[in-house]
Design brief:
Structural class: alpha/beta
Order of helices and strands: HEEEEHEHEHEHEHEEEHEHEHEHE
Number of domains: 2
CATH topology of the largest domain: Rossmann fold
Strand order of the largest sheet: 1-15-14-13-2-5-6
Helix content: 25-40%
Number of strands: 15
Strand content: 15-25%
Distance between the termini: 41 Å
Number of helices: 10
CATH superfamily of the largest domain: HAD superfamily/HAD-like
Oligomer: single chain
Shape: globular
Largest sheet: 7 strands, parallel
CATH class of the largest domain: Alpha Beta
CATH architecture of the largest domain: 3-Layer(aba) Sandwich
């Protein structure tokens, strides 16, 4: 069993920061190994103070660019400074319910000066691997509000026989996901010979006033109920970082040493662990997302995931 039977999983509308960390820790054996980092992070007041030390930035979406549906104050000015310093920038988001172009359009509407090619999602990572992985089996796109995968013979979420016919369940997004959907998924997985592909490993995302229940949360519940071992796509797993590095070098037309690229995010288990395991510098931004109400230092000590840098604000 990948999630201990005695791990307390909260109701989806009652998730706390402590719950998020506990769930991530339950999945640690499936995450990249923690690389040897410096004993303590370097602390800077503003993320802009990092710019002398890097040639490129990879930014998370939630907690760096936005919280919920609101753009974070200062992101436009920060990106203007990045451009003036001729530092490359990419976005790597675990949002998989829609294609990366949808996130890019949202950022553009907010005034961010990014090209579509500068936005990479965990969905891209899944789409790069799924054909070889599923080998012609029936794949269901999971998520009431998610855009279905473009797979020949794939089943959309509204297909009446989806849970009965699919061999692979690709969990793309949790908007509109209900307890009834969860029960049907767990019943299908419990029969054996079925697989759960999680295109968004996030357990939760910061919202104004709380935390959402993301596919990683529902995957934890399915794993605890059925004993299945989910297959993961997106941060912190290597495929997503290889993909964003390849795109970075294509967009800017040159090579980048990974040690001169910084992954910036608000999550220890996805952004910091994944970036460091990929050979990048890692920067925990604490002022807006998961740790906006404090607790970062306690969690770093508890988890043993130490970022290279901690910045409070943009």
């Amino acid at each position: 069993m990948t999630v201990p039977a005695d791990l307390r999983l909260p109701a989806p509308d009652a998730i706390t920061l402590e719950d998020i960390i506990r769930i991530y820790e339950a999945f640690r054996p499936q995450m990249p190994a923690v690389p040897q980092l410096q004993p303590a992070p370097r602390r800077i007041k503003r993320l802009a103070d990092l710019l002398d030390h890097v040639e490129a930035l990879v930014l998370d979406g939630f907690g760096v660019i936005n919280v919920g549906a609101s753009r974070i104050d200062g992101i436009l000015e920060f990106l203007d400074e990045v451009a003036r310093r001729d530092i490359a920038v990419m976005v790597l988001t675990n949002g998989a319910g829609q294609r990366a172009e949808t996130s890019w359009q949202k950022y553009t509407n907010w005034g961010l000066k990014l090209a579509c090619e500068q936005v990479v999602s965990s969905r891209d990572s899944l789409e790069a691997e799924i054909a070889g992985l599923t080998a012609g089996a029936v794949v269901a796109s999971m998520g009431p509000a998610a855009r279905p995968l473009a797979i020949e013979g794939g089943l959309t979420f509204d297909h009446p026989e989806m849970f009965a016919r699919a061999t692979y369940f690709a969990f793309l997004g949790a908007i509109g996901w209900t307890e009834s959907h969860q029960h049907a998924l767990e019943s299908a997985l419990a029969g054996g010979g079925r697989h759960l592909l999680v295109a968004n490993p996030d357990v939760s995302a910061p919202l104004e006033g709380g935390f959402s229940a993301e596919p990683g949360y529902w995957a934890a519940r399915a794993a605890q109920a059925t004993g299945i071992r989910p297959l993961w796509f997106g941060k912190p797993h290597a495929g997503a970082f290889d993909l964003v590095m390849a795109r970075l070098e294509t967009v800017y037309g040159r090579r980048f040493a990974r040690g001169k690229v910084a992954m910036v995010g608000d999550s220890l288990h996805t952004d910091i662990l994944g970036g460091a395991a990929a050979g990048m510098q890692s920067v925990l931004l604490t002022g807006y997302g998961l740790f906006s109400n404090g607790g970062a230092d306690d969690m770093i000590r508890a988890c043993g995931i130490t970022p290279h840098w901690i910045a409070e604000r943009l």
